[in-house]
Amino acid sequence: MTFHLFTMPPTARPASISVVWKPSRRDLTKKPVRLTRSPTATLKTSKTIFTLTNYGKRKTIIELREEKKSLSVESRGILAKAQEEKRKLTAEESEKLDANEMRQREINIEIEERNDLNNSQLNREGQKESRRSSLVRLLRNQMMGIPQSGPEADLVSRASERAAGLEAGGVQVPFETRSPMTTSSGVSNGVIDQDNMDIVLPLEKKLVFAEAGATMLTGLKGDIAFPGLSDVTVAWDAETDNAADGTPSHSSALKLTPKRLCAYCDISKQLLVQENQDIEGYVRNLIAVAVAQKLENTALGKAASGDAPAGIFYTAPTLKGDFSWANVVAMETAVNEAGGVQGNMAYILHSKIYGAAKTLPKHTSSAGGLIIDREGNMLNGYKCLNTGNVATQLETAPAVGSTPAVNDGYGAIFGNWADFVIANWGNLDITIDNLTQAVGGKVRLVLNTWWNYGMTRTASFKTGAFAVD
């Protein structure tokens, strides 16, 4: 089996993107933070940056499912053996389980991509194949002053229709691009869903919030407010008594205003003149990963400033201490008592806690198995997700007398993620700067996006700060 990877000289490699929060449309005078570029950058396996394309024989979907099944059986066997012997997993067993889990995730992604490819195959009999839109081609046209045409012109036109008055003067690219259905006699059912290449659609797939089931709102215009709703009054009355007023009261529970998330990166002109699908995917993923990582890092953090929204852990967790099964259940209990256990329930843990939970038994006697169900990534009967973007250095023990507080905690949160809103205004605004880096044969892409987030019902969530070995 042979893997082929496109290569570029150091001058052709784009910089890694760093993203920062900046003032919104009311003040666009602040400059973005300068990004750094490593000319010796290599492939990173922890984050998907480059895509290795396998041009050799590929496994069928059936073969991939069989491989996934065998890995699952092997993992269950390792866990069963450790539980039967009432011991913790050895380092080799943990490493094998991690490898099996990683491979199963890769298989899931490959199956999903293969299904998407199969579903997009059209019966092209009697019709001309349509060209797909390209972000690289759009940027190249903009750089060279060539008017946009074809799918790129349609893309810019659709972006202008959903503009929210927040543009910074660049070319507008929507975060999602699905062209309308058109009819054709060349297809048996007479309808084709022509799906142009999604420009920054990978963004949502890279957000842990999306996997948890958070509410994603895009294409917004102006501030948006979510009303709070008190409980409805219900009572027993005599047969002829007047009914009590059961109308619930409303209040403004959450108001979101657009916050500017911006960055810039330098890309060689040589890169932009390529007509290469791998480079197309690389540029799109570079932008998507950068924005997604910054959104997660801010939303799951503990900081707040005038420019960036406050993180979930800005208010210190009241549930703290060592990570244990008792604290896992306590998080669920707190949400349950507030009537929030409904909807898209899931735990999101810092990766450090998630890793420790794979080997920690629920009880000291090892009865009941491990805290996390490795087979389905379940925790306490609910979906369990993890990311390194969750807040750290949280207080796990308060100061007592002359003894200082202990701040060795990692963040964890449980709740109904349907009550967590991620809002996006307008489009991705890209300004092409041909002059700043012209001496080096590069162009600068200045990126501006507008986001905010928040809980529509705070009682639906419970945070914790836990120490792990």
TrEMBL record:
Domain Phage capsid-like C-terminal: 198-464
A Pfam family hit: Phage_capsid
Cellular localisation: Virion
Record InterPro entries: Phage_capsid (IPR024455), Phage_capsid-like_C (IPR054612)
Annotated protein name in UniProt: Phage capsid-like C-terminal domain-containing protein
Organism: uncultured bacterium fosmid pJB83B9
